[in-house]
Amino acid sequence: MSNSPAPALSLPATSGLQFKVSDYLGKFLVLYFYPKDATPGCTTQGVQFRDLHDEFTAANAVILGISRDSLKSHENFKAKYTFPFELVSDADEIACQALNVIKMKNMYGKQVRGIERSTFLIDPTGTIVREWRGVKVDGHAAEVLASIQSFHS
Question: Other C-beta atoms within 10 Å of 50: how many?
């Protein structure tokens, strides 16, 4: 996927927005895929991106979180943790399939289909320049920020 054009996606997002990759040309775009709103790991991940939001903005970057949850669930999650970025609803797995983040996972001894925690960095030209798969939450937002800052140096 790296060094390939980002897929042309159009999906509903919080705040009544329609997310399109093309709307973010000229900026770095961080798309982070996470399994489920309001679960411990996903909350920690969102909070870490929230806490570094000003630094991402200063680096000309926009953050968007994506999961299969509904817009209503996203709006509640966003409000509860005061996320300053939008959450994209991918209930039909359009973005998940385009970026190949659906995996079989073990949960309580059962095989289930779910989102593998993954992050994609899209540069201002619309090219995927970095991807992280099987993300470990702690320190991940800072690692993504450092990657963006390295493009500026």
Answer: 19
| Distance (Å, whole) CA 84 – CA 78 | 8
Catalytic residues: 42
pLDDT in tens, 16-27: 999 999 999 999
CA dist 83 and 6 (Å) reads 24
Strand partners, 114: 103
pLDDT in the model for residue 1: 62
- Coil, strand, or helix at residue 40? helix
Neighbours of 4 (CB within 10 A): 9
Question: 62-97 pLDDT, tens per residue?
Answer: 999 999 999 999 999 999 999 999 999 999 999 999
Give the tokens for residue 52: 């570094």
Contacts of 108 (CB under 8 A, 6+ apart): none
